[in-house]
């Protein structure tokens, strides 16, 4: 690996190191790096526990336990300079152990992690946010035999890679990542590369009966919610058409709890939200780069008084510094799952999405003009 010296137009070779010669330890260093930056493994993962030892009748503990965006549990086993011979067997045992965890057990495990390592928080809300759902009942966690394994080491022994490849051929979901430290002067860098990609598959499971019941309830709830939302959005869109609202004229009913329409700014839609306890209208700042969303938010927030006067009420301004997105929201309590409340909800959403669009139309247009004047195109 090389460092580019632009001032000299030269390459500087980085010195490959061993973790042992750098006095770096598996638990204190590599594990902490990954626990705090799990997307270094090439995807969004939510670490829900480290040094997990919640297995019946065994004192064994796995390094990191995470959820992926499909709600599957991911067992992450870290080694340093050498994978050792037994890492696959260890991970297989851990994966079998966690395969029986139910949704509420997973939430409890994550709550313990938040309380111990993060200073608190609401595990259920964090999982919903990660899974991008409104209600915990909508998501299935640790479904079937879709548990996964990730192995991390600087060097994988042949018996390890051969076993992993054999598992892959049998449909077991596994990945191997090579992590190598490099030094350049006082700087330390690590190169993390996936060396064995894998397809989705299944793994051995323990005590599935209670989890299958849990999954069936969640899946039935999900189907009912999807049908309920489609019914509501069909009626809401009829209300908008009856009111002459053009914003959603090309939008179809959806199973999701939101319905989006363009604002004229890419990836910054107007949204109507149908929730269990409220209806909301909001402007979502959802561009790929967090800095762009925060810049847009700050520019709009500087016009807060003018915008709220145009809207006719105080808005809730959610910069969300710990998230990529930002939102500007106006909400009204409703019992969304009571169909008797739907006529009032439809009227409320129709009226307030019009007010929201009118309040933000000019400020967003000014920001677009500002970008064009700077030669940066449209935002």
Strand and helix map with partners:
Elements: E1 2-5, E2 10-13, E3 15-16, H1 26-36, E4 46-52, E5 62-67, E6 73-78, H2 87-98, H3 103-118, H4 123-131, E7 148-153, H5 158-169, E8 174-184, E9 187-196, H6 208-242, E10 258-261, E11 270-274, E12 278-285, H7 290-301, H8 304-311, E13 316-318, E14 326-333, H9 342-373
Parallel strand pairs: 6-7, 7-8
Antiparallel strand pairs: 1-2, 3-8, 4-5, 5-6, 8-9, 10-11, 11-12, 12-14, 13-14
Helix pairs in contact: 6-9, 8-9
Write a structural description.
- With 379 residues, the protein is of the alpha+beta class.
- The protein is built from nine helices and 14 strands.
- The protein has helices at residues 26-36, 87-98, 103-118, 123-131, 158-169, 208-242, 290-301, 304-311, 342-373, and strands spanning 2-5, 10-13, 15-16, 46-52, 62-67, 73-78, 148-153, 174-184, 187-196, 258-261, 270-274, 278-285, 316-318, 326-333.
- Strands 3, 4, 5, 6, 7, 8 and 9 form a seven-stranded mixed beta sheet that branches.
- Helix 6 (208-242) packs across helix 9 and helix 8 (304-311) runs antiparallel to helix 9.
- The radius of gyration is 25 Å and the shape is globular.
